[in-house]
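Notes from hallway chat w/ T.B., transcribed later so I don't forget. T.B. wanted the structure written out for a chain they're using in a teaching module, and asked if we could keep both sequence and structure tokens in one place. Agreed to drop them here.
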Amino acid sequence: MREVLIDPFTAPFMGRALAELLLLAVLAGAVSTFVLIRRLGFVADTMTHTVFPGVVIGYVAGGTGGVFPGALVAAAVTAVLLTLLTRSRRVTDDTAMAVLLAAMFAVGVVLVSRRTSYRADLTAFLFGRLLAVTPAQLAQTAAVAVLVLAVLGLLAKELRLRAFDPQTAAAMGYRVWLLDLLLNLCVALVVVAAAQSVGTVLVIALLVVPAATGRLVSDRLAVICAVGVLAAAVAGYVGLAVSYRASVTHGLRLAGGATVVLTLVALYLLALLAPPARRTLARLARLLLRRRSDAVA
């Protein structure tokens, strides 16, 4: 008998998971471009760990509903402390990040060790629950996306100048430390928005790999951003579909978030090793930018 294949995204939980991933694709694709040009990969990694104590405190105070605000507060505190510490000439950037990562993650571990009743829920936060995304989480991610994209859109010129020529930016009267703080906050917001779905362990991939893929295709920031968004969106769709098919058809359980990340890394390797793939991504990115320009016009 011929096997009937059902569209996996007709299931409501799959539709919500895909919507979440598409929102994160736009969000992470844009932010990862600035992470790339500022070489903030370690900052992104630091943020994924420093939100942990906020998650624990939020969960203790308000259950699962307190996780998002708790993580948000911890991420904001990290962004502020990181900006303040790196302003000092006596503290190098990598030292400041290492100290914050170690201190705040240790606080989270100590808090978890005091109780055993919610370890499983917090472990799920580390690795994500992509297929359990709720409408409330979608609304939170959408709100974060609107805020972050608005900040990046308004300050794109200043952030580029800060990235490539900080001395000139300071000479022109821009407050470099404020630009650093705003960018750190944007990175922190992406971490918080993505943590409940793909998990803090996998967020680093969303903040690094999309723009890294775009950089293989072009030197233009607009194209890098467009390719990053496209790669993250394709990885989200394909990764979810693969994990669903493997589970339903073959009885092989694959974690949705991890499968999406592996698909994203595979796209990066394909762009790295196969010139035709780079050309295809470049054409699709130009088409995406052209349609965006037409829509604006």
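Follow-up for T.B.: DSSP finds 14 helices and no strands in the chain. Might be a good example for the class.
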